[in-house]
Design goal:
CATH superfamily of the largest domain: 2-methylcitrate dehydratase PrpD
Radius of gyration: 22 Å
CATH architecture of the largest domain: Orthogonal Bundle
CATH class of the largest domain: Mainly Alpha
Oligomer: single chain
Length: 461
């Protein structure tokens, strides 16, 4: 066990310690920078839910949910119970893989925490500082927890957003509802048994990844409601012999100080990255390279080979099996294929939502370029601390064209501005066929959400 693990072993259980840290955080003012980040998160997640509202997977999510209530599924007329609203909104927000990410995790906190907190807010009349703290705590727990055992959850076959998101959602909802510390810790214990989400979607490009944040959001909600009703969960859920880390990361040796060390004093949540492209996060720097290279007016038939240096930690998700990644079977699979995204970026010079359709995956010129893409593992790559990109093209006439991207655009080193995020939001809403009045209304809601109770009825239908 490492030193951090030994230190925590002598203290109270991690869930109980986290509950105490959250209670203490309530006595402090949320930093202005974090509040601004969370406003941006409300804007971004709202637009993503609208963009996906008419997709087959979102329609299936709504049709599958029987329970009715006063919960708003953004952009849909049917009102659901709180868990249903969280499930549908979380599924929609993550569905096109265009949602925020946390560098170092990686996890998509917003697509879990925003739907969970909005659903809880509608059900329980939460608003103002309680909503603000709930969002801050939920995102913070999800992001910090991803640093406890880096890469191990993915390596074990689980989706970090799915399993860590349930814990973060439970923490955020519990904080917003101001439960006592014992109930908070018990909710964590219950959420640990509700967490789930395997990454086998990679095999056939199926939609299960899309539902992971929605499932985590409703799991967190249900865990808190159970705990508030008196249902007990294990306080050693995180670090126990048969606990969360053992089950989802195949280890009990975690850097627990990353989760609770200075919780509430330093907020990593304000560093989350907002995506400029609707695909796997670690692909973005490669797209940036491809888009710059596209300015050379590359003719597909003149390309001899394309080689990309890459991190070993992303090979199993974004590079292999290489033949399948070069020719993805459907549009969703293409979102997790570096060869496809590099080929598309080289050919068209942009990679928007319209890059991922059943027609584009059969585009012969994109397929040709993708077939030329291979990779070399760079043992010195800084992943997961940095997400980098590299594309080197050897042309048939002997010319070599090369670009590198040292960091994630939209992340800490090159963040998107609020204007960028509002522009993305408007584009997503137009894609989802929202009228201008409703677009402006959501922007107004995001600006005022931390000053009054939440009411989302205007965003149904």
């Amino acid at each position: 066990m490492d030193r951090a693990g030994e230190t925590q072993a002598m203290k109270q259980p991690i869930a109980a310690e986290l509950a105490a840290r959250v209670a203490k955080a309530r006595t402090r003012e949320i930093p202005r920078e974090l509040r601004e980040t969370l406003e941006r998160l409300l804007i971004d997640i709202g637009g993503l839910a609208v963009a996906a509202r008419r997709t087959d997977y979102v329609e299936a999510a709504i049709k599958s949910w029987d329970a009715q209530g006063n919960g708003t599924a953004i952009g849909h007329a049917q009102a659901l119970d709180a868990a249903g609203a969280a499930f549908v909104n979380g599924t929609a927000a993550h569905g096109e893989d265009f949602d925020d990410t946390f560098e170092g995790g990686p996890v998509h906190a917003g697509a879990v925490i925003v739907p969970a907190l909005l659903a809880a807010a509608e059900r329980r009349g939460i608003g103002g500082n309680d909503l603000l703290l709930g969002l801050a705590v939920g995102v913070e727990v999800t992001c910090r927890a991803s640093l406890v055992a880096p890469k191990k959850i993915h390596q074990a076959g689980f989706h970090p957003t799915a399993v860590l998101g349930a814990m973060g959602a439970a923490a955020g909802v519990a904080a917003a509802l101001k439960v006592d510390e014992a109930t908070f810790a018990s909710a964590q214990g219950i959420a640990g048994s509700m967490a789930s989400g395997i990454i086998e979607y990679l095999a056939e490009g199926t939609s299960t990844k899309r539902m992971h944040p929605g499932w985590a959001a409703q799991a967190g909600l249900r865990a808190v409601e159970l705990a508030r009703a008196g249902f007990a969960g294990p306080r050693t859920v995180w670090e126990g012999t048969h606990g969360f880390l053992h089950g989802f990361a195949n280890t009990t040796d975690g850097a627990w100080d990353k989760l609770i060390g200075d919780f509430g004093e330093r907020w990593v949540a304000q560093t989350i990255a907002f995506k400029p492209y609707a695909c796997g996060t670690m692909i973005h720097p490669y797209i940036d390279c491809a888009r710059r290279l596209a300015k050379n007016d590359i003719v597909p038939g003149d390309v001899a080979e394309i080689v990309c240096e890459t991190a070993e930690g992303i090979v199993h998700r974004l590079w292999e099996p290489l033949d399948l990644k070069r020719k993805p079977p459907n549009a969703y699979s293409a979102k997790f294929s570096i060869p496809f995204c590099v080929g598309y970026g080289l050919l068209y010079g942009h990679v928007g939502l319209d890059a991922f359709t059943e027609a584009t995956v059969r585009d012969p010129q994109v397929s040709w370029l993708a077939s030329k893409v291979s990779y070399q593992v760079d043992p010195g790559n800084p992943y997961p601390d940095e997400y980098t990109g590299h594309v080197r093209i050897r042309m048939k006439d002997g010319r070599v064209l090369e670009e590198r991207q040292p960091h994630l655009r939209g992340g800490q080193r090159e963040p998107l501005t609020r204007a960028d995020i509002e522009e993305k939001f408007r584009a997503n809403c137009e894609y989802g066929q929202w009228d201008p009045a409703r677009i402006e209304a959501w922007l107004a809601f995001a600006r005022e959400a931390f000053d009054r109770p939440v009411d989302l009825k205007a965003f149904r239908g």
